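step=predict obj=Bifunctional NAD(P)H-hydrate repair enzyme n=505
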Amino acid sequence: MKILLTRKQTKAGNYISEIKEADEYTIVHEPIASIDLMERASRAFVSIFIRHFPVSYKKILVLCGVGDNGGDGLAIARMLYALGYDLEIYIINHSTKQSANFKKNLERLQNKIHPVEISEIDEIPDFNKNDLIIDAMLGAGLSRPLEGLIESTVEKLNESEAEIVAVDIPTGLFADSLNGDKDIILKADYTITFQTPKLAFVLPQNGDFVGNWEVVSIGLHEEFIGKLESRYFYTDSQIAEAFIKPRSKFANKGHFGHALMMAGSYGMIGAAVLSTRACLRSGVGKITVYAPECGYAILQTAIPEAMCLTDANKAFLETLPKLDNYQAIGIGCGIGTAPKTAGLIEEVLKQVKVPIVIDADALNIIASDKKLLALLPKGAVLTPHPKEFQRLIGKKWENDYEKLALLEDFAVSHQCIVCLKGAFTAVALPDGTIHFNSTGNAGMAKGGSGDVLTGMILALLAQGYKPEEAALLGVYEHGLAGDRAAQLKGTTAMIASDIIESIRF
Ligand SMILES: NC(=O)C1=CN([C@@H]2O[C@H](COP(=O)(O)OP(=O)(O)OC[C@H]3O[C@@H](n4cnc5c(N)ncnc54)[C@H](OP(=O)(O)O)[C@@H]3O)[C@@H](O)[C@H]2O)[C@H](O)CC1
Ligand SMILES: [K+]
């Protein structure tokens, strides 16, 4: 799914809103009247809302601004009222310019519900934990940080224990540009957003404001959206599943590649076990794990399906094995950063001729000797967590938007694929696009999860998936396996081995 922007810089240097353009195109070419598009959006919101909140759940306060977000609020209130919900409407008079759709929806209330107008700070009602707030104050039209009446309303809401559902975007949050440190932004518990995820929603710094969010289609013109030149994407099930290659009935193990996993050191053989097992669970034909000698008995016992080659060194990897017989190579999980291991990494980078996935200490080794960056093969898949990525680029970022710019820059300049791990793992491709992952959960923020991902990506590379596909599909399936594991064990209890046991292809 494309992530459409409300503030996109054109080649000429000015800014446009892709969402507004898609809106206008839909209105003219579907065709549909603007007020009917709002009706459709509001109905779509309600269809999701009623799944989460039954009629007698809580008293609902619908807080409306006077633009189209407020118009949505009025239409949503009318629809929920007709379904029997107990609600009050408050209009926050932040401006004297009411939008045409807002006015029309005010008329459509037909005196059935009488909105309370709020024009002064002392008229803002009290909010408490038995209230369910629908935030329709401001959405995609936010043009400056909050101030005055609307800022005070949001402050009061944030201090209350009321439960909050935002319409489209929590009030005060810029959809795809940086808020100031001191900006007041509504802390929503849920956000139901229209048509496209907003870039702000996938950035960790905004997690407190957006809460759990869901996208609902409002039927904007697909062909128009298809033609937009987007830089940001959201990997949903439709995109990920389209990559999956079916296994032919007459296939044999030779069709699915022979992978080499170079992993482990004394005290970290577990990383070799996890990554190798995850690789096997992800469809590889054969795997050889190359580990220091101390890992031999452990690996042969723990993973009978894998072949094991050992380095002469007992404790860490030192000597380059033959790389000829493999379709893909994985390197880095638990290898440590001994100087001799660093020498091995340099040799691998110089000699590798097949797709490669590089993780953990292999990345740290590259980061500590920047000349190795020049040896990164085109199309290499790198799987750093944020600290490892900071070491690679040699600097810290001030905010998540700067992080995205650095990520894009790195992937383009090194022509490689970077999977920056975290909630909504960001996969940057050599063409400069960034693809945020839709699966996964906080239970995966534990030792070993990254080793599992490396193994999964290695398996896909060995099976002949293009590096871009292997990264996007691997990250998606890894998160999905994590979500299944969380259902079985809970996010606190689940461990990396549970993720492996939940891989399903
Ligand atoms: N395609 C879609 O997704 C659709 C979305 N819909 C809904 O429409 C809103 C966007 O509506 P819009 O009218 O463009 O914008 P808002 O309602 O968010 O706000 C506009 C008004 O707010 C004023 N404004 C802006 N910033 C501030 C501020 N910091 N403090 C106070 N007031 C502010 C702005 O005034 P100006 O002075 O800047 O002119 C406007 O008056 C979208 O979010 C969806 O909810 C449609 O329903 C269907 C299609
Ligand atoms: K809102």
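step=describe
The chain has a mean pLDDT of 97.
step=end
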